[in-house]
Amino acid sequence: MKYTTYSGFQAIVRAMEHYGIAREAVIDEHGIALPEIADSGQHISPKLTEQLLRLAVTEIDDAAFPLKVAEFISPSTFGEFSLGLLTSSSLRNFLTRLTKYYPYIATTQKLRLVRGTDEVVLLSHFAEKSIDEDLRSVWTEVTLAFVFRFMRLMGRPDYKASKIELTRPFCGQDIARYRDFFGVEPTFGASRNAMHLPLAGLDEHLANGGSEIAIEYELRIADKISAIEDSNLPLRVHALLVRELPRQILSKEIVASHFAMSPKTFQNRLGEAGTSYQRLLDEARRELAELYLPFPDITLAEVADLVGYSDASNFCRAYKRWTGHVPRSD
Measuring CA to CA, which residue among 75, 70, 92, 91 is closest to residue 145? Predict the structure, then answer.
C-alpha cells in the first residue's frame, strides 16, 4: 500500500493559506477533504496529496511555490523521524539515515544517495504510477528544498549545493529565489531531479551528533520502519540489525530464521533486491558506530562490542574500510 505522511500534506495546506487559499475553500469550493488528524506521522493516501498539489499548481501564480512549502516544514514536522535526524553526527550521516528511513514519510518516492569523486548526489525516483508525471517534479522540488533546509538548520546555515537539476521547465521570473535558497542557480528542464552536494563539510561533526537521544530515535525509527515496510526485506533486515546488534550477535542464519526463511532463500531474496546480508550488516554496524563514537565515555572496545565485533582491532580495521580513516583513539 502506497502512502504519504499527513504532516507533509499539512505543510502544503499552510503554504496555500499563505497565498490566500483558505482551508474552507479547499474543502467547500474545490471538494478536497482535509482530514483532522492529531498524529503528524499518520499515513494518508498519496492521491489526497496529489489533489492538493494539483490545486496549488492551478490556482497559485508562483513558480517557486515548492520553496514556500519547505518554509512550512519545521524541524518537528515529521515527529520523531525529524527529531532523530536532527541528532545525526554529520551531514553525511544525516543524508544516509534520511535515504534509509525515508519510507517513514512516504513510499511513493524513493531517495538515493550516490557518491562521486568530490560530491554526493541525492536522487529522487517515483514508483511507477504512484503520482501523475506532471506533478512529480513539483513534489520532488518540495522534497529537495525540505532536505536542504533541514541541513542548514542542523548547524550549517552557510552550506551550499554545487548543482541542482530539476525536470520541471521554469516558467516564472523569480529564478533568483531558487539561487538564493540553494546557493546555486538550478538547471531547469533537466533529465533528472538531483541535488549535488560538495564533500567538503559533509563529515564535520555536528553539535547535536552522538547524543543519547540519537540512539533512542534510531531504534524507534527502525521499529516503525520494520512494522510498515513488510514488502521490503532489505529495509526490514536493516531495521532488525540496528535494533538488535547492541543486544546480541546476529548471524545470517539467526536473521533468516527471524523472517521464517532458510539461509539460502534469505540470501536469494536479498540478492534479488540487489544487496546481501554482509552489505546490510556493514551498513548497520557503521551507522551504529557513528552514533556511539562521539560519546567520550564509551571506549572503542565497548563500541566494537555494541556493533558486533569481538575486539577493538577488528572493529577499527572495518571502520577504516568503510570510511577511509580510523575511529577516534581512547
Answer: 70
Classify 278 as helix, strand or coil. helix
Please work out, in degrees rounded to the nearest 5, the angle formed at the alpha carbon of residue 261 by the alpha carbons of 260 and 266. Answer: 135
pLDDT > 90 fraction of the chain, expressed in percent and rounded: 23
Q: How far, in Å, are 7, 9, 49, 134, 220 from residue 44 at the CA level? A: 10, 9, 8, 21, 21
> What residues contact residue 201 under an 8 Å CB cut-off, 6+ apart?
91, 156, 159
Amino acid (one-letter) located at 143? T
Residue type, 79: G
Query: Which is higher by pLDDT, 162 or 3?
Result: 162
Q: What is the pLDDT of residue 37?
A: 61
Do the beta carbons of residue 209 and residue 217 sit within 8 Å? no
pLDDT at 85 exceeding the cut of 80: yes
The DSSP line for 178-211 is HHHHHSS--EET-SS-EEEEESTTTTSPPTTTT-
DSSP letters, 152-164, are HHTT-TT---SEE
Grid coordinates 495546506 are at which residue? 13
Cell of 216: 533512542
- What would the pLDDT profile of 1-45 be if each residue is shown by its tens digit? 566 778 888 889 899 999 998 888 887 777 777 776 656 567 777
